[in-house]
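Morning F.,

Quick status update on the modeling queue. The single chain you submitted on Monday has been processed. Sequence for confirmation:
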Amino acid sequence: MTEDFHYLDGDAMGQSKASKIKGVTKRRGSTWLIILCGALALAVIAVTLAVLFLSHLADRQRPVKAGVELLKGKKAATATVLFQRGSNLTHLARAHYGQVNPTILDIILEANPSITDINRIPVHKTIVMPPLAVDSFILSIPDKPFAVHLGAYDHRPSLTVFQDAPALKGKTVEIVVRTISPKERWYRVMAGPFPTKEEAAAALKTMKQSGIPLELTY
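Structure tokens below.
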């Protein structure tokens, strides 16, 4: 009787231990599964944030790209767009014109004098998108009847290529500091004076035909 009693007691203890081990294993498996799912979720969030940051950084760098390039792609007419949350002037210019650089952004700012900070544009503000044609590059200045806009840069550019242009012989080529935000300055290259708008337009057309790069679409 004693042997039978111990045999049954040992069997019950064995089953109890097996049940406990199985329960611990199951809990450990669930814990590892939770940890793995959490790690995967964190990895997805990290990758998403990295992509968004790099995209935002690239957009912030593009507007200060130096130089003047010939516009390619879309030829735009005057239009108005509504500034949306999460957008910026670089996005709008690229979507409307097919390309963006400081000169194009400067032309947009010229058409929208109420924008005093390129980085802080009110949501739902109506923005005029002028055509990149000759009229947009001819400005009327109080002490100079007409002057031509030859390009905008994020640094002081060399004026040699413009001063040597035959179409600008006898004209003053100068740099005008352009404030685009409280902490940012661009440098606009201007030439003049021209007594009439027609003469200014003819000079721009001649410069374009001679190979000097300007964002003229006409």
